[in-house]
User: What shape does this take?
Amino acid sequence: MAFSCEKCGYKNTEIKQGGGISEKATKITFDFTEERDLCRDVFKSDTAELIIPEIDLELASGTLGSMYTTMEGLIDKIHSELDKVNPFAKGDSSNDRGAYKDFLEKLLVLKEGKKPFTLILDDPLSNCFIYNPNAPQDDPKIHV
Assistant: This one.
């Protein structure tokens, strides 16, 4: 369900889940190696932890809510949310403005497909998904 307020500009495209609960958790590891991987569809549930070890990013479950987007859209959402919700890490309120700005720059480099990385979705309810263009064969970039 999507919501947009014309008055204040607030937008919400979070997906609310329904259905049963899986017996086992799922941990999906995706190896991003080329620019076209940015177009892969991904569903990140609100119960999933998201990790990108190459830039020391760990987002706890519930951080971004749930969303269906592309890899590029997911990274863009992470970047925009971190930039928006952390005003004290910028400007004269910050003790180390360079480190935060450098971290946001690392996210932009990933979003542009200029550096290989690993995306891990660890979901105790098994509600995550990364599109496999090779289906029904296994995708060598996706490890479950």
In short: The mean pLDDT is 86. The helical segments are 71-85, 97-111. The first helix runs from residue 71 to 85.
